[in-house]
């Protein structure tokens, strides 16, 4: 049957190199012309750097659209959550899993008054949406929800995407970002954002509960 699954991992590749790795398996019976879209809601505590993405654009096989402009300097309490639309694509001829590795950065956090030096930032799982030209088993998924979103990263047209219900979201991912007291303030004031401790690597593995035959 059509059984997409999705998993997300956080990885810390060293100073300033924090990545959210999403793997999507569409399943062998999913028609080859199906396109996938991942919609991420990012908390205000982190940002994705559009310039860094542009720089990496030759290396990655996916495109990203932001729903807002990103200010790289603002502290967490002066920004808000934002959405990104990610269009993954297959790199090779064989339809294996789609992998998207998104570099993220922690924002400066206002000092807390409870003496804690780290604050948890919750990273949510993305929504998985699928689109196909023809009538396929995916469109017979019951119940299905349609969601309008840009067809591709050029944002020139809007498509009706099918929202895939993932059966369980039992796990959560937290980033632990330093809050601005003591030496951290000094670092932030010199223009450096420090992301030190990352907890929780593997979190979720959700499998679509509907099976089509
Ligand atoms: C796509 O384009 C429309 C119209 O120009 C704009 O209102 C919308 O914010 C854009 N969406 C994204 C995600 O960039
Ligand atoms: C972008 O998405 C976030 C999260 O859903 C929302 O709070 C925010 O208002 C959106 N921004 C714009 C400019 O649409
Ligand atoms: C996006 O879709 C439009 C029309 O659907 C197409 O003309 C355009 O070439 C596509 N852009 C990319 C980058 O695939």
TrEMBL record:
Keyword Glycoprotein part of the UniProt annotation: yes
- A GO CC annotation given for this chain: endoplasmic reticulum membrane
Location in the cell reads: Endoplasmic reticulum membrane
Transmembrane spans: 185-208
User: Which biological pathway?
Assistant: Glycolipid biosynthesis; glycosylphosphatidylinositol-anchor biosynthesis
GO terms in the biological process aspect are: GPI anchor biosynthetic process
Q: How does it sit in the membrane?
A: Single-pass membrane protein
List the keywords (alphabetical): Endoplasmic reticulum, Glycoprotein, GPI-anchor biosynthesis, Membrane, Transmembrane, Transmembrane helix
Its family? Belongs to the PIGX family.
- Give the protein's function: Stabilizing subunit of the glycosylphosphatidylinositol-mannosyltransferase I complex which catalyzes the transfer of the first mannose, via an alpha-1,4 bond from a dolichol-phosphate-mannose (Dol-P-Man) to the glucosaminyl acyl phosphatidylinositol (GlcN-(acyl)PI) intermediate to generate alpha-D-Man-(1->4)-alpha-D-GlcN-(1->6)-(1-radyl,2-acyl-sn-glycero-3-phospho)-2-acyl-inositol and participates in the sixth step of the glycosylphosphatidylinositol-anchor biosynthesis. Probably acts by stabilizing the mannosyltransferase PIGM.
What is this protein called in UniProt? Phosphatidylinositol-glycan biosynthesis class X protein
Where does this protein come from, organism-wise? Answer: Oryzias melastigma (Marine medaka)
């Amino acid at each position: 049957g059509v059984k997409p699954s999705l998993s997300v991992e956080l990885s810390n590749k060293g100073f300033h190199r924090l990545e959210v790795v999403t793997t999507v398996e569409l399943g062998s019976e999913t028609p080859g012309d199906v396109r996938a879209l991942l919609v991420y809601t990012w908390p205000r505590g982190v940002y994705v750097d559009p310039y860094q993405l542009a720089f990496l654009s030759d290396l990655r096989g996916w495109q990203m659209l932001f729903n807002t402009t990103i200010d790289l300097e603002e502290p967490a309490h002066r920004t808000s959550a934002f959405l990104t639309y990610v269009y993954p694509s297959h790199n090779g001829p064989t339809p294996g899993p789609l992998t998207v590795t998104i570099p993220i950065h922690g924002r400066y956090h206002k000092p807390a008054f409870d003496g804690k030096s780290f604050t948890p930032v919750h990273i949510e799982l993305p929504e998985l949406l699928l689109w196909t030209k023809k009538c396929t088993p995916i469109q017979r998924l019951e119940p299905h929800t349609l969601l309008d979103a840009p067809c591709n990263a050029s944002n020139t047209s809007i498509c009706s995407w099918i929202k895939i219900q993932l059966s369980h979201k039992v796990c959560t991912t937290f980033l632990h970002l330093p809050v601005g007291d003591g030496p951290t303030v000094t670092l932030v004031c010199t223009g450096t954002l420090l992301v030190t401790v990352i907890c929780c690597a593997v979190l979720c593995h959700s499998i679509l509960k509907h099976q089509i035959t």
